[in-house]
């Protein structure tokens, strides 16, 4: 049972007292075998031990630099128990601090770093500016209770992924967290028996709030995989769902695509997915063809298509804003593509674009579709910016008052109340939210709006040599207005084979047919070249900057041997660029 008005630390301490032997977490290794188990009692005692050992005080920031391990959640709760502001971060790799991680360190001005003993020396060399350190795995359990915190007190900083700008620290209060965890529990139908399986990184809002903290909130059990285990063996994910009879598990759209591709390669382990009631799909645009492909691939293994649960959210709203509803199933809408380019949703005609809904507005939230220029509400079925208000909307950006006022304090013309501007474009149709793109990413070509992820999808599916989900579309200035550029990765298995002219022809034909577009430039590049955030989102602005500097390696496989007696001009050789 959830206590109204309680904070997360209070809920954990209470569950430790009432059900001390109940399993809170099962951590799996890279092969899917159980590596560590934490009970509620052990979790509480270890968190109390960290709270007592922290080298910083209430209100100060502590960086959490961990791999996907039990010590992360122990450290996170230890900070909340002590009133210290937790700052999850993507830990440095190979003694090198990533650009986004360096930005988080500089912005948060931490008083301490919490990590593992095995990482301490290397981290101290790479982050010498931090004054205090604590190896959490060397801290023993202790008796104690969380310090009293009010709903408005700051709990942690959730740094944005940096897909559209430099990472910013979203200030999440204890009240914000409690409100969003309540929303998730109601939308997903969670209770103490609702096992959750997750693999998303803990420094990502979906991994932290959805997979790690939601089970604690309802008193359930969480099964935790590492992101790399999923990347290397995608079918470990549904296998864990089947083995532990999970009620809920999900990820971004690409995760479902990865499972479909792995199942096609085979073999598929013995699975019983009839337990899977909420397969949430969020964090990036939901693709109707992904929804269908996953249901077709895993339906024979007991997966119910109605369990597919598209949802929408963002770190600035703590996590979730809209959801599909338990076993309601996704809503797919055939919309007129020309009307969408003009900013409205209408019935299909000659050119069709299929949209997947992201669910209905959850209880406690208000969502408005607003014209970003006039700040007036859009008429029904019109595309505008998604604005959100409610108790889960965070307090603002850490140490950024101007950005906070612009993003979190927006007002609709002639109305009272403040809203969060999400920067996402969407429409409400019969109560369902359809997200169609990002305000800052829209390319306006000959007076029509084109959303990059639609263009990227068309490009990636135009030829089998291209890697789905690995492209970036963006606009560049031209003499007569904006023109479109696409950078697209080739599949690894086609890196040294294929015909670039054939691929380019297929892409240009597909774009002309589906969108009526011609490209200023198409760059087919090598695997891994399109820049991404730590959570896997494509960084389009960074890709545009690399393109402007001529920094992409173009795919240029070796030419096939030719008969020099027949081929006029003698033999031809094409060098492979890059590594």
Mean pLDDT, all residues:
90
Shape: globular
Q: What strand order characterises the main sheet?
A: 2-1-10-9-11-12-13-14-17
How many DSSP H or I helices?
Answer: 16
| Computed Rg | 24 Å
Q: Beta fraction of the residues?
A: 15-25%
Helix content: 25-40%
Number of strands: 26
What is the end-to-end distance?
A: 56 Å
Structural class: alpha/beta
Oligomer: single chain
Poorly predicted regions = 562-579
User: What does the main sheet amount to?
Assistant: 9 strands, mixed
Structure description:
The C terminus is likely disordered. Strand 11, helix 10 and strand 12 form a beta-alpha-beta unit. The protein has a nine-stranded mixed beta sheet with strand order 2-1-10-9-11-12-13-14-17, with helices on both faces. The chain is globular and about 65 Å long. Helix 6 crosses helix 7 and helix 14 crosses helix 15. It has 579 residues and is α/β, with parallel strands linked by helices. The protein has 16 helices and 26 strands.
Short account of what is shown:
Helix content is 30%, strand content 24%. With 579 residues, the chain is of the alpha/beta class.
What keyword list fits this structure?
579 residues; alpha/beta; nine-stranded mixed β-sheet; four-stranded parallel β-sheet; 26 strands; globular; disordered C terminus
């Amino acid at each position: 049972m959830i206590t109204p008005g309680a904070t997360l630390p209070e809920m954990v301490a209470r569950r430790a007292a009432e059900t001390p032997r109940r399993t809170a977490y099962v951590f799996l290794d890279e092969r899917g075998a159980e590596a560590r188990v934490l009970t509620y009692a052990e979790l509480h005692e270890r968190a109390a031990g960290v709270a007592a050992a922290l080298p910083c005080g209430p209100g100060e920031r502590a960086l959490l630099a961990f791999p996907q391990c039990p010590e992360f959640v122990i450290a996170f709760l230890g900070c909340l128990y002590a009133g210290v502001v937790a700052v999850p971060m993507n830990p440095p790799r190979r003694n090198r601090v990533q650009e986004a991680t360096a930005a988080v360190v500089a912005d948060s001005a931490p008083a301490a770093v919490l990590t593992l003993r095995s990482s301490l020396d290397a981290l101290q060399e790479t982050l010498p500016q931090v004054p205090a350190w604590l190896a959490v795995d060397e801290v023993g359990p202790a008796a104690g209770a969380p310090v009293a915190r009010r709903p408005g007190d700051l709990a942690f900083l959730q740094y944005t992924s940096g897909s559209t700008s430099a990472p910013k620290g979203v200030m999440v209060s204890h009240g914000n967290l409690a409100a969003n965890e309540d929303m998730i529990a109601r939308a997903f139908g969670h209770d103490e028996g609702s096992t959750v399986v997750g693999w998303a990184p803990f420094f990502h809002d979906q991994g932290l709030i959805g997979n790690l903290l939601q089970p604690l909130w309802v008193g359930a059990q969480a099964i935790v995989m590492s992101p790399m285990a999923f990347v290397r063996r995608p079918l470990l994910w549904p296998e864990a769902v089947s083995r532990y009879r999970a009620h809920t598990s999900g990820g971004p759209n690409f995760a479902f695509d990865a499972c479909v591709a792995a199942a096609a390669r085979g073999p598929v382990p013995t699975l019983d997915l009839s337990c899977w009631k909420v397969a949430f799909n969020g964090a990036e645009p939901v693709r109707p063809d992904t929804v269908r492909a996953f249901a077709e691939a895993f339906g024979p293994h007991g997966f119910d298509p109605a369990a597919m649960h598209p949802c929408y959210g963002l770190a600035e709203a703590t996590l979730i804003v809209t959801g599909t509803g338990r076993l309601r199933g996704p809503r797919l809408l055939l919309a007129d593509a020309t009307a969408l380019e003009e900013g409205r949703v209408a019935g299909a005609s000659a050119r069709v674009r299929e949209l997947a809904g992201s669910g209905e507005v959850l209880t406690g939230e208000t969502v408005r579709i607003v014209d970003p220029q006039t700040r007036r509400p859009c008429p029904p079925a019109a595309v505008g910016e998604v604005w959100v208000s409610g108790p889960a909307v965070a307090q603002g950006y850490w140490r950024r008052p101007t950005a906070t006022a612009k993003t979190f304090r927006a007002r609709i013309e002639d109305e009272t109340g403040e809203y969060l501007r999400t920067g996402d474009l969407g429409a409400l149709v019969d109560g369902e939210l359809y997200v169609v793109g990002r305000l800052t990413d829209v390319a306006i070509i000959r007076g029509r709006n084109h959303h990059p992820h639609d263009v990227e999808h068309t490009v990636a599916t135009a030829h089998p040599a291209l890697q789905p989900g690995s492209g970036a579309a963006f606009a560049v200035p031209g003499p007569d207005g904006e023109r479109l550029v696409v950078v697209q990765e080739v599949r690894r298995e086609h890196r040294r084979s294929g015909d670039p002219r054939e691929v380019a022809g297929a892409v240009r034909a597909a774009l002309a047919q589906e969108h009526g577009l011609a490209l200023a430039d198409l760059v087919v590049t090598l695997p891994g070249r399109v820049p991404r955030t730590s959570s896997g989102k494509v960084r389009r602005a960074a890709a545009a900057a690399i393109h402007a500097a001529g920094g992409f390696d173009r795919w240029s496989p070796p030419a096939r041997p030719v008969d020099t007696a027949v081929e006029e001009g003698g033999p031809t050789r094409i060098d492979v660029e890059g590594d």
